[in-house]
Amino acid sequence: MKSWRFFYRFLRVFFIVFAMNGSLTVQAFTGTYGINYGRIADNIPSPDEVVTLLRALKIKNVRIYDADHSVLEAFSGTGLEIVVGVPNGNLKDMNASEDHALSWVKENVQSFLPDTHIRGIAVGNEVLGGDQELWGVLLGAVKNVHKALEKFHLTDLIQVSTAHSQAVLSNSYPPSSCIFNQNIVQYMKPLLEFFSEIHSPFCLNAYPFLDYMGDPANIDINYALFQSTQGIYDTKAKLHYDNMLDAQIDAAYAALENSGFKKMEVIITETGWASRGDENEAAATSTNARTYNYNLRKRLAKKKGTPLRPKNVVKAYIFAVFNENLKPGPTSERNFGLFKADGSISYDIGFKGLKSSATSSILSLKKIRAQDWSASYSLVFTACAAVLLLFLRL
């Protein structure tokens, strides 16, 4: 009986590990291209249709800004890898109580595993450099979420992170001179120390669009759009940059190195270009948005690093799947989508939109899931049969 109990436990662990892609190392990002699935809108397709769309586009990495159960259920059995978010409004409670963090992780993460491939938890978004009331609670919230994952034995499967805006950086031109803003260093340093301990990356929301909009007189738009240009030369590092995104990434690497975290990886958690804007947002056009996103897609497909970190392949999540009609702020904020609210493309970068028939879309989703189930579990069955034969010989 003891032997059979051991074998049962082995099979249970085997199924869980296999369902999480057969790895005991955190892999929050597969490949180089991901996308942000924002939902501040009342007119976008259902989560089931979004899954169909993303599968058709062959985009596997997806970030959401909460842990909405309808989204997590729609992603179940699809093979898509998702990073869920702890909203900024939850950070104070998450910092104050380990039990609160444990309950949140149990309800929004652990209960959906292994069918929904949750690969990461982003604790807050653009906190440092943003709302000062949250600066002091971010690290505690991050640690409590990680402790909750430890209790569920999920730290080898799910990565904990937080995304920063460029507001945390200072002196970013030239890139090698970049440091962290002095007003957030006392919060950033211990956060980076913890992320270094748990092997999490530095996540940056980087927008050449915003930098260009802030200084169009002195920035060549071709440099921001990955177009042919003379670029810039960093005399301190003796490195040439032919596009702004690479420079923004290397500015973050320089700030990390100057703080003692040379080995930490930088991942771009948001980048994109608005296809429409207000009168004072002249660069927000569909032509520029198409150029940026098309060239960005080509750049990521090359799987290469930056001038400062040539061996660190650039990984980026594009912002965003859809235009979001309820987002506050200027018109540009509501027009970053690769797709319009009806599922049609905003501009052509080689992607196709949703099928016109919702029924056919849902049928395709069922077909996709059936194929995933069949392929995955036939492999599991074969592996388990082999183990069983070995066990019976003992």
Automatic annotation (TrEMBL):
- Per the record, what are the reactions this protein catalyses? Hydrolysis of (1->3)-beta-D-glucosidic linkages in (1->3)-beta-D-glucans
The highest taxon in the source lineage is: Eukaryota
GO cellular component labels: plasma membrane
What Gene Ontology biological process does one annotation of this record name? carbohydrate metabolic process
Keywords, ordered alphabetically:
Glycosidase, Hydrolase, Membrane, Signal, Transmembrane, Transmembrane helix
Q: Which EC number(s) does the record attach to this protein?
A: 3.2.1.39
Which principal EC class is assigned to this enzyme?
A: hydrolase
Q: What InterPro entries has UniProt attached to this entry? A: GH (IPR017853), Glyco_hydro_17 (IPR000490), Glyco_hydro_17_plant (IPR044965)
Q: Does the keyword Hydrolase apply?
A: yes
One of the record's GO molecular function terms: glucan endo-1,3-beta-D-glucosidase activity
Keyword Lipoprotein attributed: no
Locate the coiled-coil region(s) and give their ranges: none
Can you tell me where the transmembrane regions are? 373-392
PANTHER family per the record? GLUCAN ENDO-1,3-BETA-GLUCOSIDASE BG1-RELATED-RELATED
Q: Which family, according to the similarity comment?
A: Belongs to the glycosyl hydrolase 17 family.
- Put simply, this protein is called glucan endo-1,3-beta-D-glucosidase
Species this chain originates from: Vitis vinifera
